[in-house]
Predict the 3D structure of the following.
Amino acid sequence: MSWDVIIVGGGITGAGTARDCAMRGLKTLLLERGQPAMGTTITSTHLIHGGLRYLLYDRLTTHTTCWDSGHIVRIAGSLLTRLPILWPVYKDHAHGIETVETLMEVYDRFSAMKGGLRHLRLTAEDTLRLVPGLRREGLLGAVSFDEWWVDPAALVGANLDSARRHGAEVRAGAPVDGLIMEGETAAGVRCAGQELRSKIVINAAGPWVDRVARMAGARIPLRLRKGTHLVYGARHVPVGLLLETADRRYVFVVPSPQGTLVGPTDLAGGNDPDRVETAPEEVSYLLSSVRRYLPDFPERFDATIVGARPILGQAGDEKLLSREYEVFDHLSRDGIAGLVTIGGGKMSDFRVMGEAAADAACARLGVSADCRTHLETLSGEPLDPQVPPPQPSRAVKKFLRRHPRLREWHALSYLAAAYVRHLALRAYYGLSAAAQ
């Protein structure tokens, strides 16, 4: 038995890719070595978010993520819950309240693509009424914004259910041991003692994409980062929080129907995603970061989750790493036919990642079917076509990812212009109020 495409990896990227391929009429098989979603996907912050902080150094990734998050809200709306998030600002923070609000004013334009509400600026008194447990000393106020909470396992499951309805086959507990190589062509995979043949193999293995690519003699450079979250079974805050840490990073406190998540950390992840573990220092870091603002926040948590983020290899400071995705056509890149890799990215743009991978597979198969994943909900209801906002240029994004300082300058130049406009408007309305 053979397939048009075999997809390796049952996280959110593989699940979204399987759905896209099946909806285009491709005979599709997805293989996952464990249980779907139980690798990197389940260790995320459980948010479909636009990447607010990327506006400081990677504006176009925020644009793309918000653009595709808008599609995800339409197709998976029944699985999503709107989550208001508060960003409290203190006197000793790296960014003052005017700078933070400027960032939110810029984010409003992108957030609208995913149904996000406009930000609000709160006084210190209003902030403490919303979150009474916050430290009062030095509090200047806060800004609010909203994102979407999701159960990652449910999101993966819904994508796989949709893929099955469109004819895909999904096998869990099916580790890929190697690729079937016929000369310079990948003709399928070896799995649990079986040879499973296909015209195209799509490598969607997240932080394991390099391991799969090496089975064909290719490499996918990665710069893995480790992220740990603390898991609480109870809900400990009334709204989400974005908190600046002592070393000028940020952690989320995310309440949900499942309890509360605190994190993530962001550390070098080594070379083996199977050997990622939470260090005691990470636990101390997260607890001290939260209790810096919420002195009574419980120190006793129920569990930790940790995973490796599949960040594509790139030069530059760790704080400037792009979360952009890329499709690698190994025929044009490495002279290896029959193999396509989709790497990088995040849960918040999984649908467009699946579209890009399916486009590459269809191009090699000579199939002209268009993507339809944005035209039907995950449960099968048709959606009215909409004219989406324009996406940023792929060529420009690729160029800027390879020049991180230039990418940062590109982002900061927009923020600088927005900051001048923000101060001018604040001055204008202040003078107008005084005149009245």
